[in-house]
Amino acid sequence: MNPKSTVKGRGAQRNVHNRFFELSHDMRDDFLEFCRKEGEESDKNKTLYLPVFPKTIVNKVASTDVGMQYSMNMYQGCEHGCVYCYARNSHEFWGYSAGLDFERRILVKKDAPKLLETLLKKKSWKANTIVMSGNTDCYQPAEKNFKITRQCLEVFLKYKHPVGIITKNALILRDLDLLKPLAKENLIGVNMSITSLSEDTRRVLEPRTATIKKRLETVKKLSENGIPVNVMIAPIIPSINSHEILPLAKAASDYGALSIGHTIVRLNGAIGEIFSDWIHKTMPDRAEKVLHQIENCHGGHLNDSRYGTRMRGEGKIAEQINSLVKLARRKYFKDKGMPKLNKNLHEQFKSGQLKLF
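^ that's the sequence the OP posted. Answer follows.
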């Protein structure tokens, strides 16, 4: 890997064409030419935080194999820069590239707590677990400044409503004062993403995430405080982290996780181009091997959108991966499991509040 040829601290190494915005490249070229004429640097690799004002914040998840019914995202785009992230494609809907733009143009929804409270107060709303970070990490670096996730947790606690969290950032420990009372009422479940035990792998695969040591310590701290944790070994990428399934599962169990989940990497939309460019630059000696093995898991394609098979894959390599995960569950998580969150408290809370009016 030639450090001079890479964008430091980023997963994607370039921007790719936005399929929804045909003029995006022409406009970018014009901007770069203007910068050159003005004697300015066209790209300082800085992150920009851009406010957006959606009308709603909670989304119903139509996909049947995602494992959640409702999700909410306080941020669009993610500075963590995980090169494999499926959420990159959603940045194109906003007129940006799924490549470097996804990591450097972070859309911030400051009204999220207010929108959430409006929803939870509705008579028509029936309590169901809402997962924060269905698309991008709610504890990414932006959260340290904006604290939108924390404000939303305050709303969930106020209305006694079940909430799930998906993250790979130790910043979640900042909010233990909210997580503990939620856990006491069986209203919270945390999913900590840990894709490797190797720091070398993490640095190139997930450049701006918390270290593996910090993530494991976070699992331990949450567990010690009675907050149930599931560790997501996701995605599993053949010949990059597929050999780590058993040691990862053991570490998760040793640090207090109650269960593990997994997916096999799939490179839909623009992610295929981004990942292929990245792996040829960072792991040129095994790039083609990895890409061919990913294709082997998805019927000969990097892209796989078929419900039922896209998350677990098919073929011999996928079968080996899925069998190892089953073995890991039997070996390290026997008689363990995540609790079912309480939906009744919110209905009781609303009933009690309505009597006041």
